[in-house]
Amino acid sequence: MKKVGLYFGTFNPIHIGHMVIANHMVEFSDLDEVWFIVTPQSPFKIKNSMLDDHHRYQMVYEATKDFPKLKASKIEFDLPQPNYTINTLLYLEEKYPVGYQFCLIMGADNLKGFHKWKNYEIILENYPIYLYPRISEGEINTRFKNHPKIHGIAAPIMEISSTFIRKQHKAGKNIRPMLPDAVWKYMDEMNFYR
Fold it and tell me: Which of 116, 148, 162, 177 has the most CB within a 10 Å radius?
């Protein structure tokens, strides 16, 4: 049975923070692989700052291609919008009926609003959640504390954000060290986020 951690995001762009977390999950937990699920345009995000789906997927592919345990996935591109995690999970179950156990990877801050997710109880019942630490305000709902399906992984705390990278790149700052080399190259050649 292959245990796959699903790391959802717009990855606009993918940066070293994402890579460090994913790699830490695959090396220091019982996950065999981490799949970066590139989420298409969310109806709630402003389009102008969001690169086209296939460009974001390509950057994730470029970032992960030399890491056999990390994979880029565009599985959500063909699913109805907006993307609900539960629908993606059910679709993956259908597509890979044997040999795979899917788990969710999320930042501890996401747990605060988790009870608002569509069918969160079903997710919690059927899919282990691997949490990475975040510096954030507010309390995690007591129903999720010490939950047998929620596993905290002591990954490094990464406070780099794609928003910060886009903003500073546009302002002419050197953000290159925050990106995997191949991502920087692609971004620079395509003249993105200028």
Answer: 162
- Give CA 141 to chain center in angstroms: 22
Look up residue 184 and give its two tokens. 């920087």
Residue 18's nearest CA partner among 150, 179, 172 is: 179
Q: CA angle at residue 44 from 43 to 45, to 5 degrees?
A: 95
Provide the mean pLDDT of the chain: 92
Long-range contacts from 45-49, C-beta under 8 angstroms, 24+ separation? 45/10, 49/12, 49/166
| Beta carbons of 25 and 131 less than 8 angstroms apart | no
**The CATH classification of domain 2-160, taken from the options 3.40.50.620, 3.40.50.720, 2.40.10.410, 1.20.120.420:** 3.40.50.620
Report pLDDT for 134: 86
Amino acid at 73: S
User: What residues in the chain have per-residue pLDDT under 70?
Assistant: 41-48
